[in-house]
Amino acid sequence: MNDIRRSILWVVFGFSMVLIWDKWQIHNGKAPTFFPSSAATAPAEQKAAPAADASVPAATSASAPSVPGAAAAPDAGAPAPAAVRHEVTTDVFKLTFNSEGGSLIGATLLQHASKQLGSEPFQLLVQNDQHTYIAQTGLIGGSFPTHKTSMTLLPGPASLADGQDSLAVKFESADVGGVKLVKTYTLKRGSYTIDVAHEVVNTGTAPVTPQLYVQLVRDGNKTDSETPFYSTFTGPAVYTSAQKYQKIEFGQITDNKATFEKSATDGYVAMVQHYFTSAWLLPEGTARENFARRIDNNLFSIGAISTLPAIAPGQSQKIDARLFVGPQLEKVLETTAPGLELVKDYGWLTIIAKPLYWLLEKIHGFVGNWGWAIVLLVVLLKAAFYWLNASAYRSMAKMKAINPRIMEMRERLKNNPQLMQQEMMKIYREEKVNPLGGCFPILIQIPVFIALYWVLLSSVEMRNAPWMGWITDLSTKDPFYVLPFVMTLTTIVQTALNPLPPDPLQAKMMWLMPLMFSVMFFFFPAGLVLYWITNNLLTIAQQAYINSKMGVPLKITNPLTLFKS
């Protein structure tokens, strides 16, 4: 009867895992593995974004600010000519501008290779039939030039020459509604920050008070750096000094449930994905209305609107902005703008993760290899926690030494649970063993190692970083699954060194959980697996050393004996 019940429980457990896996696939926008019929509604929100530009935000009212709507301000005059794309190159960028609005519709990061295309550089901003991710600006509050208005590229160099520190790219609109907009992008050598100056010229006969909007437009598709067992945030974010860093899910925008600081005089709006980000930064002290909205079925924007002072006829007004487009390099982000480093999200363990990243970076500066830097960092952490671990392992060794007595006593008193408990506590007192003595020291260290996990997962430095031999990219899984296999073996050895719980069911779970955990690591980035292997090996070495000092024989438990009954 027990065997039948056990079999039923295993069937239920297995079926539950299948259902959870299918739901996880659907949650991440992928086709279900086991129940394809359930995919009929899942991908609806994940269709590729249309190539058409986003509609213009609606102007805000000074007395009653409103979230920008979808209504577009029509351009004056005859239909605009066909849009023309212009390419500009610096030492870090290959940028594509569109004559329609002078928008930035392409940004290739020349110093960051694409994992999908081998040696080809990584393209962050793009506009095509499969993917939309662009940066736009324009004027609202009247029939003014918007990102839909045709603009002319003024003559100038298209690449940053040797010895040149900056390059200016200038677009100028025609007279639209009595206003002309001149937009100047200034690109600097070695910088992922683009200065964007907007000069608004009143060519009419009456004063105008336009509003400048800056926005990032992106489809809601996840990046292809995800794996089935971990998911990083992709979507808009807002930072202000009052509310700090606020992430916004695409689904929250769709459901009109997005909450963030809308009125501010500092901060930024950003579009975040794994390893990379883009952000619009208006000058500190500039009043703005932040907004996040859904433009189309799977197209979203995050932006800010700022009101310019009244401009008299024949006069002009200039407002500057900055656009960051690049990798989440912590030092670069920190020096670009206050709070921008928060786009590299460590979650609730930031206070621990940031010092760990600092130490990891210092070690890398010494060894010159991120893989060996990970190994040395784990060695330093294990050394720092050596005495704490030693206390835990001594407790475990004592438990393992008295485990035969506990098992014999449980078998002898299995029909008398109350007496069994009393006898067990008596043995613990006689041998001066605390059953929880091996848990508390390890629990204290768990936040540190979870924080290190997030450091390795979030750091763009791991991307395309080799370790040795076949490991050419620490941010992707081991192509031959050697590291995950080694990690599984070390996990088995480490589990075998631990004392088994007296309860047979708990003993089985003690073996099953680490093995199930190891399976996930076959899909994890090689850098994370390397970190875990190093931790396992050092743990095994310390535990074996303490066992030998205490005279506990190095006996490896055979897990197969636990599952025969």
From TrEMBL:
Residues 370-547 form the Membrane insertase YidC/Oxa/ALB C-terminal domain. It is found in: Cell inner membrane; Cell membrane. InterPro entries: Membr_insert_YidC, Membr_insert_YidC_N, YidC/ALB3/OXA1/COX18, YidC/Oxa/ALB_C, YidC_ALB_C, YidC_periplasmic_sf. The chain crosses the membrane at residues 7-24, 370-390, 433-460, 512-533. It comes from the Bacteria. Interacts with the Sec translocase complex via SecD. Specifically interacts with transmembrane segments of nascent integral membrane proteins during membrane integration. Belongs to the OXA1/ALB3/YidC family. Type 1 subfamily. This is Membrane protein insertase YidC. It comes from Hydrogenophaga luteola. The lineage of its organism: Bacteria, Pseudomonadati, Pseudomonadota, Betaproteobacteria, Burkholderiales.
